[in-house]
User: Fold DUF1292 domain-containing protein from Metabacillus herbersteinensis.
Amino acid sequence: MEMDKIEVGEIFTISDDEDQEQEVEVLGVLTIEGTEYVAVGFVEDIHQETEEEIDIFFLKVDEENELSAIESDEEFEKVSVAFEEILDEEE
Assistant:
């Protein structure tokens, strides 16, 4: 069964290392070499009307459409560069 594709603007609840639940909103979706990645930010950061940069996290979408952490620095670097290129084009 195919789960729906993750869309920009969707909100997920994720648990951090201390099992604190955090709501994150999808800011971007990108497929690199056949793997889907999402850029997310904390909902409360996104909706605060501040000029501060929001922290953006990258997560990998696995076969079950579950979000998982990016394990390697190389993979993280590849994903962050690709997302930066997209964001630069949109400005």
